[in-house]
Amino acid sequence: MSAVAWDPWQREVLEALGHRVYARAPRPGDVVPEDPLAHALLRAAGRTPSDADAAALLRELPPLAALRADPAAKRALWPRLRALRRGGAA
Fold first, then answer.
1. Rg for the chain (alpha carbons), in Å?
2. SS (HEC) of the chain
3. pLDDT of residue 32
4. 88 and 65 in contact (C-beta within 8 Å)?
5. C-alpha distances in angstroms, 38 versus 62, 70, 82?
6. Where are the domains of the chain?
7. What is the spatial distance between Cα 25 and Cα 34, in angstroms, rounded to a whole number?
8. Which end of the chain is less enclosed by CB atoms within 10 A, N or C?
9. What pLDDT does 29 receive?
10. Alpha carbon distances (Å) from 24 to 7, 13, 46, 62, 90
11. Low-confidence ranges of the chain (pLDDT < 50)
């Protein structure tokens, strides 16, 4: 089932007719975690947690736990982050 995107006028009309307009709650994968490492990775990539593609970018990177545990994985990640900062796709 796909979500319906109501524009502001449609919301106003539906609410005036007594209908409750629900908004879809974000899925866990669509939310940037409140983790200092996640925020640091986004900053290094030239993004902010409020950017539309922030959660998708974090999903493409290695898991945060793996980056914390393996220094080699973190070092290997830097070229990708620099490419993202320059505006290229990694």
1. 18
2. CCCCCCCHHHHHHHHHCCCCCCCCCCCHHHCCCCCHHHHHHHHHCCCCCCCCCHHHHHHHCCCHHHHHHCHHHHHHHHHHHHHHHHCCCC
3. 87
4. no
5. 11, 16, 16
6. 8-86
7. 17
8. N
9. 66
10. 14, 19, 28, 28, 31
11. 1
pTM reported for the whole predicted model: 0.63
Side chain identity at 83, as an amino acid letter?
Answer: A
> Amino acid identity of 16?
A
**Torsion angles phi and psi, residue 35, rounded to 5:** -130, 130
Residues 11, 17, 20: CA angle, nearest 5 degrees: 55
Tell me the residue length of the chain: 90
In order of 16, 32, 72, 78, 82, the CA distances from 89 in angstroms are 46, 20, 22, 13, 10
* pLDDT, position 35: 92
> Percent of the chain, pLDDT > 90?
37
Q: Are 29 and 58 in contact (CB under 8 A)?
A: no
Amino acid of residue 42: L
